[in-house]
Design goal:
EC 1.2.1.3; about 20% strand; Aldehyde Dehydrogenase, Chain A, domain 1; aldehyde dehydrogenase (NAD+) activity; about 40% helix; alpha/beta; Aldehyde Dehydrogenase, Chain A, domain 2; oxidoreductase; Ald_DH_CS_GLU; Ald_DH_C; seven-stranded mixed beta sheet
Length: about 450
């Protein structure tokens, strides 16, 4: 076990204000692998002050120079990809292959995309007799989750830095080690002192102090809708800009005429990836009544193959929460066709890949975000019924549509109340805006839309 010390503040590792530490547990074997400081409001204040002091110079830095620093950061992350993947596997429990490709690979691509955007974006434009300036919002307070620990930091820090903002990051307490690696990469990339700051700590202490700090101009949070509401209330009460990427209960709609086997297999893979700990996972599969029994059989067979492929959930609390949802599904009359609440292993926070059939729209497992490897399959009568079910939750983060004709799928997707829809297995695009409708959040991440979240406009009339 390694005991890490210090917070990354003003370009250096500084001793924490208090003596408390957070234990980092490997969820695969339940062993403590490290400790990190549990930050206090005093640590947050020091970090915000450093960010405010660094803001004028960084905001005035030409975009091309900011782009060069981001490109250097991308290169450092790429050089340390193996170390990043191994760290995420140790603290999150994800299989190493997934950690390499997704947990390390995607953040590298996103950092590179913002290096390019910072160089190309028009921070100044003319309209009529006015010059419109796109200026940094100021100091950003970023509170990030554990499920994609590096990606969520990069998805906030990279556009913030590209925009000319400075930032303080409070990472999730379950996965702080890769956040420390990112701070080291920032330092190695030559990003000036105070531009990026890191405070590890608990949400109710360090996270709340960051959201409430009067020196923070924008709060960006990714996590549960319940916590997002509290952070949004704090931020808007202080007239701060807020960006919230929250929960989801995304629908995977399989229309008649689609390649059923492919749609089901890809849908199951989507739900099981990262052990189901993905806010945008397609956890509701909607199938026409005439193909329903076949789809259920295909899904059960596909899920059984993931028993040895997925890792554990992040901690015991999350494991128990997912088990409780599975038990709730059984109690409400859904039919288990794969998996169940029993743990498949003696050690670690594991949950079996689980598939429910005969799920109706009003059931708890069809309405609430479970955040585990649990798929609900619902039948629909016709296209209008499918649309009603797809739009029938408080969430609207992502989704998928499959059809024999791409235009038919796209027409259905246009009527879905959700922020992102994959058509017939469309590939992930790091430049496409990501974010939700309804209670799935406010604002967008990734690409140019993610950059503009960290900008404010000023017009000069001539």
């Amino acid at each position: 076990m390694k005991a890490y010390d210090g917070m990354y503040i003003d370009g250096a590792w500084r001793p924490a204000a208090g003596p408390d530490v957070i234990e980092v547990v490997n969820p695969a074997d339940e062993q403590v692998i490290a400790t990190v400081p549990a930050g206090t409001a005093e640590d947050v204040d020091a970090a915000v002050r450093a960010a405010r002091a660094a803001l004028p110079a960084w905001a005035a830095t030409p975009p091309a120079e900011r782009a060069a620093r981001l490109a250097a950061l991308r290169d450092v992350l790429a050089a340390r990809q193996d170390e990043i993947a191994e760290t995420v596997t140790a603290e999150l429990g994800s299989p190493l292959k997934l950690s390499q490709a997704v947990h390390a690979g995607v953040p590298i691509a996103v950092a590179g995309s913002y290096a390019e955007l910072a160089a190309a974006y028009a921070f100044e434009e003319r309209t009529g007799n006015s010059t419109v300036l796109h200026e940094p919002v100021g100091v950003v307070g970023a509170i990030t989750p554990w499920n994609y620990p590096l990606h969520q930091i990069v998805a906030k820090a990279a556009p913030a830095l590209a925009a000319g903002c400075t930032i303080v990051v409070k990472p999730a307490e379950d996965t702080p080690l890769v956040a420390r690696l990112f701070a080291e990469a920032v330092h190695e990339a030559g990003i000036p002192a105070g531009v990026f700051n890191l405070v590890t700590g608990l949400g109710p202490v360090a996270g709340q102090a960051l959201a409430e700090h009067p020196g923070v101009d924008l709060v960006s949070f990714t996590g549960s809708t319940a916590v997002g509401r509290r952070i949004g209330a704090i931020a808007t009460g202080m007239v701060k800009k807020v960006a919230l990427e929250l929960g989801g209960k995304s629908a995977n709609v399989i229309l008649p005429g689609a390649d059923l086997a492919r749609a089901v297999n890809v849908g199951v893979a989507n739900v099981m990836s990262n052990s189901g700990q993905t806010c945008s996972a397609w956890t509701r599969m909607l199938v026409h009544r005439d193909q329903y029994d076949e789809a259920v059989e295909l899904a059960a067979t596909a899920a059984a193959k993931y028993g040895d492929r997925i890792g554990p959930l992040v901690n015991a609390k999350q494991r128990d929460r997912v088990r409780a949802y599975i038990e709730k599904g059984v109690a409400e009359g859904a039919r288990l066709v794969a998996g169940g609440p029993e743990s498949p292993r003696e050690r670690g926070y594991h949950v079996s890949p689980t598939v429910f059939a005969d799920v109706t729209p009003e059931m708890t497992i069809a309405q609430e975000e479970i955040f585990g490897p649990v798929l609900s399959i619902l039948r629909y009568e016709d296209e209008e019924d499918a649309l009603r079910i797809a739009n029938g939750t408080v969430y609207g983060l992502a989704g998928a549509v499959w059809a024999g004709d791409e235009a038919e799928a796209a027409a259905f997707a246009r009527r879905m109340e959700t922020g992102q829809v994959d058509i017939n297995g469309g590939r992930f695009n790091p430049l496409a805006p990501f974010g939700g409708y309804k209670q799935s959040g406010v604002g967008r991440e990734l690409g140019v839309h993610g950059l503009t979240e960290y900008l404010q406009t000023k017009s000069l009339q001539f």
